[in-house]
Structure formats: structure tokens, C-alpha cells
Amino acid sequence: xxxxxxxxxxxxxxxxxxxxxxxxxxxxxxxxxxxxxxxxxxxxxxxxxxxxxxxxxxxxxxxxxxxxxxxxxxxxxxxxxxxxxxxxxxxxxxxxxxxxxxxxxxxxxxxxxxxxxxxxxxxxxxxxxxxxxxxxxxxxxxxxxxxxxxxxxxxx
Amino acid sequence: xxxxxxxxxxxxxxxxxxxxxxxxxxxxxxxxxxxxxxxxxxxxxxxxxxxxxxxxxxxxxxxxxxxxxxxxxxxxxxxxxxxxxxxxxxxxxxxxxxxxxxxxxxxxxxxxxxxxxxxxxxxxxxxxxxxxxxxxxxxxxxxxxxxxxxxxxxxxxxxxxxxxxxxxxxxxxxxxxxxxxxxxxxxxxxxxxxxxxxxxxxxxxxxxxxxxxxxxxxxxxxxxxxxxxxxxxxxxxxxxxxxxxxxxxxxxxxxxxxxxxxxxxxxxxxxxxxxxxxxxxxxxxxxxxxxxxxxxxxxxxxxxxxxxxxxxxxxxxxxxxxxxxxxxxxxxxxxxxxxxxxxxxxxxxxxxxxxxxxxxxxxxxxxxxxxxxxxxxxxxxxxxxxxxxxxxxxxxxxxxxxxxxxxxxxxxxxxxxxxxxxxxxxxxxxxxxxxxxxxxxxxxxxxxxxxxxxxxxxxxxxxxxxxxxxxxxxxxxxxxxxxxxxxxxxxxxxxxxxxxxxxxxxxxxx
Lengths: 156, 510
Hints:
heterodimer, A: mainly alpha, 0% strand, B: mainly alpha, two-stranded antiparallel ribbon
């Protein structure tokens, strides 16, 4: 997981800084952007699979159950920092907006936000559907009549 | 007021659609934990910037008036006042729900809201032109003092935090000076930032930061989680609600009149009018079983709420001095749509007439929609704040970005979001900061004008005083010195109004 996260971080840094150093602006993202993005998605999904398998095996063991009780207490303590996490989420969203564009950044924040804040509901798919509807409704509202152009992102 | 042209402007398909959409949005925002009409206004004012004036104002008016009804539904069902104006409703509402009279109460509240709102509209329509005509005769020095009075009233109404209210209002005043000087066009206090030099600190972005981002961060605080109570059946109460409303008409009218009178005083506002209406009913009928489901205890406060909400527009639309964040936002909305508060708004202005017509229509629309959808709306109050907060934060960012289309707007909204959260965290009032920002330019420009006049006549701008200025200045001194002193002396023997309304803004949502 750590190895994959390092790859992911390198890819994100590369994506953010590449246009600045590419020299030829139109080279990015057409030639370099999509393979790099594919690598990033592969690294992220592999990290997720490995993490889910590891956490499933830990939960079933006796030590895992003891750790689970400790984890519940830890979660209660961590809940105090939720406003801070909320701020980190919105600051991250604001930072990613020019890079990913309105649609992608908003979907990421609306689906990833509740997960990052500790929501583990079975009905997360409803949140995802509402997030998609909300994002596209906002994009439509802005595109139709507001006179404001929402950030298109590096992929336009 | 030009009613004939106003009617033809208001009764168009798009305006009616905007009223229905605004009412739905307002109701949803009213019941959602942590949100409300002010949040809706902050987000939708920039979005409707390019719409036609009456359509945009139709949506905003509907949003402004309907959120309070949404908050009343959750106050009755779950004892969660969605708005500071619904506190008194939460005293009797849950007891009525336990008795199986939730539907009846929600219908009666809606009808009372219509009566209260109509009383408020009547007050604005009849008193507005008179005050606006008088406003034309007020000198710039008097206007400056009126702006200071507006802030003093807001600070004095901050109950136990008068000093904090004055300080925050002063900070708001100071922040309003950032950017271009209105007279010389020189940039001030920008620290070399081109964004601040060009845009200054926009009132609407601060409002988004404080009321949207700040309250979203606040709703993530542990202990702010939603309720888990079941939602009762509502449809059974339509007929009973109408009968109850007819029986309680005297209480409704009393609440409406109290709300209208309080609404005209800047700074007192909706958070107090509903409680005063409740206490008035309680004092008038001491033998009734208060706290155990007394219908007069929900209809009178809700009539007062709606009346105050509309009457608050009187100082804002006549003199340009808002007494509450919501009326400040409505003033901002009419200004950016090219309408001028004061004499011009009330005299032969079809858009001004259309504004009041859309307000009356929206009172009826949101009551019908609110009751029809109350079962679904009530379920929205059960949404986990951890799911809701990201949506609010994202909407806040997009709303801020819509003001100038600049990333600087988002950064500013985030900074004021943290400020709003900290104010809620330390139980300090939010209103003076925001009102200081909108009253600041009014005070400054009029002071500068008074100064120019005084220089031309070789007199001191504030020493060449008239009776209005002297009276208003004395009132300001009284409000910020005597009122807190009397309060601190009475600390041991608090009045029922003080004890009922003594809740921090964050706990009742903004």
C-alpha cells in the first residue's frame, strides 16, 4: 500500500507540475496526461484492494477484535477533529478544482468526503447518485444562464 | 406603488416557476440540519445575477420566506428549530406531535404564517413610502449616525455579549474599508494583493463563508448529529388544522402584530419576536397547560416569525439600513438587480410592486407545498451531518466562485468559514460582523459626504448637528452603555424572554 501510495503521490506531483515544465503546452495532457492518469488510477485501485483484503483478515482474528475495540475508542477521539477534516476536505477541493475541473473535483469531494469523514453506510450508492445529480445540475445551471464559466480543469 | 404593471410583471410563467422552485429549495434548506434561508440566499444571489429582475427576486423571496416554515416542521416533529425564529414553536410542537396532532399543527402554522406575512407586507407597503419619503430629507451626517445606530442595535440585541457584538461590528466596519476607496479610488489595506485591490472584501462572500462554510464545519462537531425519531402521519390533520386556525385567529393576529412591530426595529429580529409572541400568549392565558401541547403556543410565534421576516425589510428598503443578515442579503439582491432602496423603490416602480406580489404568492405556495411534502421533508432532517457537510462545503465554494468567477473568492470564503466556525465554537454572535460589512460603506460614504459639505460651509461635520443626529447619537450611547449595565444588574433575576432565548446561535442553526 505504501509503495502504491508513493507512486500515486509522484504521479499527482507530475500531473500538477508537468504543464509548467513541458515547454510545449499542447503536449500535455494529450500525449503524456492519459497514460499517467491511467497509472494513477491503477495504483489507487491496487492500494484499495490490498487495504481491503488486509483489513478483512485483521478483523476476523482475535487480535483484530481487540484492536477493533481500541479502534472504536480511537474513532470517538478522532470525531473531535471532524471539523478539521471538513476544512481539509474543502481546502483540498479548492486546490484540486483548477487541476481536475469542476465535475471531477466535485464528484470526488461529494463521494469521497463522506467516506473520509467516517460514513460507512450500506446506502452510500444513494449518496453517489445524489452527488452525480448535484454535480451535473450545478454544471448545467452555470453553463445555461449564469455568465460564469466553471473551472474546466487540465483536461478541459 | 405601481400595482397594475407589477401584477403583469409578477404573473409570468417563469416567475411562478421561480417561486415554486424557490419555495421547494427554501423548505428543504429549512429542514436540513445546519442550513436555512440565509444559506440559500447567499448561494442563489450570485447564481441569479443574470436572470431577469422579477424572476430572480421571485426565487429569492420564496427562498427567504419558506425556510422558516421548513424549520417549523422539524420544530414540531423533533423539537429541532430549523431557524432561530422557530424556538418558541419547539416548546409546544413536540407535545402536540405526541398527542397525534402533528399534521393539524403543521397546517395551522402554515395558515398563521400566511396571516403574519400578509400583516408584514401591509406594514411595508403602507409605512414604507412614508419612511422612504422622509429618508430623502435626511442629511448625510444623519445617515452616518443611523448606520452607527443600526450596528449599536444589533450589538445591544446580542444579549449577554454586547461588547463582543460591538467589537465584531467594528471589525466588520474595518473589513469593509479593504479595497478601493469609494471617493478617491485609491486601494487600501490590500497588502499588495491584486484580488483585494480589485474586489475588496465582498459582503456576499463573507456571508457565504460565515453562514455556509462555517455552519457546515460546525455541523461536523460531535454532538450535532441528527435525530432518529420516527416521522408521524401528516395527512390526517388538514381539516382539523383549518378549524384550529379559525379558533386561534385572535392569537394569530396578536402574534402577527407583535412580529410586525418588532421587525421594524433593526437588530431585534426574528429570534426574539417569536418568543415575545409566545410569552404574550402565556401571560394572557395563564391557566392553560403551557408546555403540554397548547396550540396558541405554536400559531402565535409562527405568525410573529413571518411578520417579522417581512417587516425587517422596512428599514432596509426605506433607509438602506438592514437590521438582520437576511434583510441585508435581500437589500444586496435588489441592489445588484438594479433597484434602489428608498424613495425610488416605492414610488411608481413596477418591479417594487412585483416584489411584494411575489412575496404574497410565495406565502401561499410554500404553505401548500410545505404541508403536502411535510412527510418527505421531515425525513431530510434525519440525514447524517457527515453526508450533508461535503455538499454544503462544495455548494459554498461554488457559490463564492460565482460572485466574481475567481479562485480568490473561494479562498476568502474558506477564511471566513473558519472565522464563522470559531465564532460559533466560542458562542459569539455572527450577525454584527456581517452587518458591519454592509453598514460600513454606508457609514463611510455618508461621513465623507458630510465632511465635504462641512468643508464647504467651514463647519465640523459632526458638530453642526441637527435634532435627528443628536437623538440618534444619544440612543447609540444608551444602547451600548446603559442596556448592558441594566442587564448585568438584573443578572440574578432573568426575565422569561431572556431565559427562553438564551441559546447560542450555533445550537439553533443559522
